[in-house]
Amino acid sequence: MSDKSALPDLPAGWTGAPPDADALFAMAEAALATMPDVFRPHIEGVVISIEEFADDEVLASLDIEHPYELTGLYEGRPLTERSIGESGGMPDRVTLYRIPILVEWIEAGEKLEWLVRHVLIHEIGHHFGFSDEDMHALEDMA
C-alpha cells in the first residue's frame, strides 16, 4: 500500500479527470472578465462555445489536415469589415476545441487557464480585425 501523504498538493477542484467542457467554459468566462473595459461593449454579443474537435468541414475550409492542429476558431464578420447600417445575421462566435487545447496543455506544460485565455484572446482578436502583433499587445493588456 502506498503512502498517500507523500502525494503533492493538487489544485482545488481537481477530480483526476481531464477538465470537461463546463470547466473550459468557466475558464473562458474568467478570461473574458480580464479584457480591458474599452473592449467589453464590443464583445458582449460574441457567443463562446466549447466543442471536442473541429468537424471535417471546418478543417477542410481552413486547409488543416489534423483536428489536433486547431484549438480555436472565430466565426463572424470582423468589426473592421462592417458597415454602420448592418443588422441581422447570426452572432459572432468563438469556439474553443477542448481536446486540442488539452493536448497542447500537456505538451507545453503551461497552466491550463493561461492557455485557454491565450486561445480565446487570439480568437477575439479576429473579431476586432487585429493582426497577430495587435493580439499579442491585447493579451499583454488583459
UniProtKB/TrEMBL annotation:
- GO:BP terms for this protein? proteolysis
Query: Pfam families given for it?
Result: Zincin_1
- MF annotations from Gene Ontology: peptidase activity
| Record-given protein name | Putative Zn-dependent protease with MMP-like domain
Q: What taxonomic lineage is listed for the species of origin?
A: Bacteria, Pseudomonadati, Pseudomonadota, Alphaproteobacteria, Sphingomonadales
Listed transmembrane segments: none
**Originating species:** Sphingopyxis italica
Which Gene3D superfamilies does the protein's record reference? Answer: 3.30.2010.20
* Protease found in the keyword field: yes
Q: Which UniProt keywords apply?
A: Hydrolase, Protease
Going by the entry's taxonomy, the superkingdom of the source organism is recorded as Bacteria
What InterPro entries does the annotation carry?
Answer: Zincin_1, Zincin_1_sf
